[in-house]
Amino acid sequence: EEGTAKSLLNNVNDNLRKVEEAVNVELSCFAPQAVRCSLKDLVPYNLTEGWSEEAKAEFCSVVGCAAVEMRPLGQDRDSLLVDLRKAPMEQSTDVPFSVREYLVFVEVARFYSPVTLGRRPLMYYPPVYPEASKELDAVVCHINNLSDFYIQLVDNMESLLLSAKLQDCYNALSEDKRRVYCPVIGQACVARFEDELWYRAQVIGHPGGRKVEVRYVDFGNKQILSVSDLRKIKDEFFALPAMVRAHQNT
User: Fold this and answer.
1) Residue 238, Cβ neighbours under 10 Å: how many?
2) Which residues does the UniProt record annotate as the domain Tudor (predicted)?
3) Higher pLDDT, 215 or 250
4) Of residues 115, 111, 114, the one with CA closest to residue 45
């Protein structure tokens, strides 16, 4: 133990240097470059146990070494209260997400006051409805009940082309590319269905357990799946309106 302590002391001495007085005076003009921060309104998921190693690991994984957007939200004693957002990619449909909301979503943290910040996600263009009294060929693609079902128009060949392009694009991507960290209610995305194919979807719920509820906008059905089965949608797939028309009696 004595040898180990001496070795550590030698390593410290090898990396320490005295600063000359003239240099010390010059350096004193610069404020410390590191600012102590705290994520505003965030507390450990389990208050009795405090911050877990899992929470730290999730925070490190999502922040990484890349620059993030910072929003100062106040000050508390010696800490700056902030929210951090992942910088958007070049895709216009890539909504920046709050690191605080991500940590709450993966259940390593909780909010202790209401959250009012956030940006509304971009949503799909609504489907184009046919003219009244016009006869068309259609396929019923999903039924909730007799007053709530969805159809696709048979002569709409865009759906076949869209499906093929989706599979080609998203099967070629690695799991980390275009990953959705913190899905926002209403967010347009691409989701994997139980047939292992990719479809356009919209986030409609947060059931918990790192699960997300989506509605497949080109078919009308809903599904609860893991957030790992979501991907950010590319502009070329976002531009087309939803393929299904909802028929509801009110």
Assistant:
1) 19
2) 182-240
3) 215
4) 111
**How far are the Cα atoms of 37, 125, 180 from residue 99, in angstroms, in the given order?**
14, 28, 12
**195-211 burial code (b ≥16 CB/10 A, e <16):** eeebbbbbbbebeeeee
Query: CA 99, 101, 107 angle in degrees (round to 5)?
Result: 105
Measured distance CA(228)–CA(225) in Å, rounded? 8
- Please give the structure tokens belonging to residue 48: 């009795």
- pLDDT reading at 226 higher than 90: yes
pTM value?
0.59
Measured CA to CA, the distance from residue 62 to residue 50 in angstroms comes to 20
Q: How far apart (Å, rounded) are the C-alpha atoms in residues 198 and 166?
A: 6
Bridge partners, 143 (sequence order): 149
